[in-house]
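Appendix B. Chain record.
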Amino acid sequence: MNDMNTEEDNENLDDNNEEENVVNLDGMNGEPDLEISPEDIIASLQQDLLEARDRTMRALADAENTRKRAQKDREDTGKYAVANFARDLLDFGDNFKRALESMPDSTPASVTEGLNAMETELLATFERHGIKKIEPLDEPFDANFHEVMFETPTPGKAPGTIIQVIEAGYVLNDRLLRAAKVGLAKAGPAQEGPTDPGAQVDIEG
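Structure tokens predicted for this chain:
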């Protein structure tokens, strides 16, 4: 009988030891083990996919914007690289025109015709390289392209109308090189003669 009791006690002891060696996964950290459903996994993957797609689209948009800016910079460099040189040519053209206009009547016709032909060719060269002359007589004033030198009441002219071009302006591919210097009509009763000394500017000289 004693031998039987001893065997049962040994078996009970072994069972207790096995139970103590079993790790209780459900009770780790005091938190229950929550099962993740397939639907939750799919939803999480879909969210990750949307976020990755959004990041990719933003990166592509940034790259495209950078490409367009670089292309525009290259185009502008090609179109406006000669701007400073063009301004120097404008001064030469102005002086050349003044020289033509100040020639005495005794100048041989062949000389006058040759110089006029040179001026025509100079202006044609300007045009070929995108340089255009601005002579806005009788046009509305535009602060982007015109510089006011004087204003005076003028019968029959709406206020803001350009009544005199003192110095022609120029643009290079629609970018202003030099503003046209102009005189404007303004509101008010007409007066004898201009009210501003600047109106006496002789554009012929």
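Further analysis of this model is presented in Appendix C.
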